[in-house]
Amino acid sequence: MLRYGALLFALPGILLLSLYGLEMSAINDCKELGLQLDLASGQCSEQVQQHSSYYQRHATFVNLMMLVSIVGALMMTWGMMVRGMTRPN
């Protein structure tokens, strides 16, 4: 229970940070070229884009990942309560 809880707690955060970082990298690559990233197509363009946050565009996905993380934290807590805080010999 502890191991699965730890995985469910950590992996959504790592996934969200990775996706956000990839998107920011693409935005910075376009800025270096003097262009803007078209978030719908993922291509650089000269048109001025309306900026929206990652959460605004992917609210359901982010909320589900946070829910999975909370479930993982609860599983870890439950596993510690059931197993006890004993040290292995």
TrEMBL record:
Task: Recite the UniProt keywords alphabetically.
Answer: Membrane, Transmembrane, Transmembrane helix
State if Transmembrane helix is listed as a keyword. yes
- Superkingdom of this protein's organism: Bacteria
Q: Where are the transmembrane segments?
A: 61-82
Q: Does the keyword Transmembrane apply?
A: yes
Name of the protein described by the UniProt record: Uncharacterized protein
Q: What organism does the record attribute this protein to?
A: Bacterioplanes sanyensis
